[in-house]
Amino acid sequence: MAEFSLDEMRTAHEKLEARMANACAQSNRPSEDVKLVWVSKFHPMSAVENALALGATDFGENRVQEAVEKFSVKRPGIRCHIIGPVQSNKLKKAAFVADCIHSIASMEAVEKLEKICAEADKTLDILFQVNAGEEATKSGLDIREAEPFLLSLENHVPCPHLRFRGLMTIGKNTGVAEDSRECFAFLRHLQQKFLAHGGVFASFDQLSMGMTGDLEVAIEEGATMIRVGTALFGERDYSTKM
């Protein structure tokens, strides 16, 4: 399968929107509760332009440099999400291009981002990634350290240039959507617990979880953002990527 044409992308988007709407209805949630993040990683700018023509507003990129290449020129109403792990030396570029970073998992990154954003006079949304599926290949906070880490943020030096918006996780890589329910539920309970704390967690209302194969389960468990790539854009060409 090759990358989708505009018409193919339109059809794919309509099918995905129907799935999302059905999952929301089954969960007694309004459709507008769930934001679709179009994962444009490894897709060319022409594909992004097609998505924009279909009304896409939120795009997810794994690699900071690719995000800079595509989204450094800001467009009104268009948000760039960094959804992959960010190395310390890439945090400045990530803070420059991103409206939201989903993959924060260390106090060092929090401190560095606050300093960078203060210097740039920018307020940045961040989510904390949790390895809720406990898979060795996944990044993020260990489930046993996630709560102590979040508690430590309450007693940390204030970060007025960072908005702590919620949590992110990646479902289990088993090919069975139901296998991810437990880790999605864990994330929701953790997010709700800290949202109730208020204070630095007053805006902690986002759950970034669920992709093409498990979005229904994620929505049932409270996802507010789902991240979908291939099902919207078609197959990626990895041959030119390192």
Automatic annotation (TrEMBL):
Its cofactor is pyridoxal 5'-phosphate. Residues 30-236 form the Alanine racemase N-terminal domain. InterPro entries: Ala_racemase_N (IPR001608), PLP-binding_barrel (IPR029066), PyrdxlP_homeostasis (IPR011078). Pyridoxal 5'-phosphate (PLP)-binding protein, which is involved in PLP homeostasis. HAMAP family: PLP_homeostasis. PANTHER family: PROLINE SYNTHETASE CO-TRANSCRIBED BACTERIAL HOMOLOG PROTEIN, PYRIDOXAL PHOSPHATE HOMEOSTASIS PROTEIN. Belongs to the pyridoxal phosphate-binding protein YggS/PROSC family. This is Pyridoxal phosphate homeostasis protein. It comes from Fibrobacter intestinalis.
